Amino acid sequence: MKEYKFEDFSIGNSVYHKSNTNLKMIVIGTDPETYEIKCRWMDKNGVKNEDTFLFAELVKVDDYNSEYRSFSISSL
User: What is the reported pTM?
Assistant: First the structure.
């Protein structure tokens, strides 16, 4: 998995938490003093949730998806 720097994240990025790639979140804020990223997501009931994570806990959706899409199938 790609290693990120704090500067790699910006408002509007779609991200996953490394421990739960089923939940897509949107970056809504960054704090360069604490290296924290504030994210928002909607749960299954349409309730808006927000939480703050260290940048090291997150992975960008596009990078994560492209890493797992690049595989090949060979037949005998």
Answer: 0.80
- At 67, the amino acid letter reads E
DSSP string covering the chain, please? -----GGG--TT-EEEETTEEEEEEEEEEEETTTTEEEEEEE-TTS-EEEEEEEGGGEEEHHHHHHHHH-------
Residue 10 to residues 19, 63, 65, 69, 73, Cα–Cα distance (Å): 21, 14, 18, 24, 35
Rounded CA separation 69/44 (Å): 26
**Would you state the pLDDT for residue 64?**
73
Provide the pairing of β-strand 58-60 with 20-31.
unpaired
